[in-house]
Amino acid sequence: MLLSNATEQEIASYLVNVEEESMGLAPNKENAVEIAQTLIDIKEWVIDEAS
Question: Quick one: what percent of the chain has pLDDT higher than 90?
Answer without folding.
Answer: 98
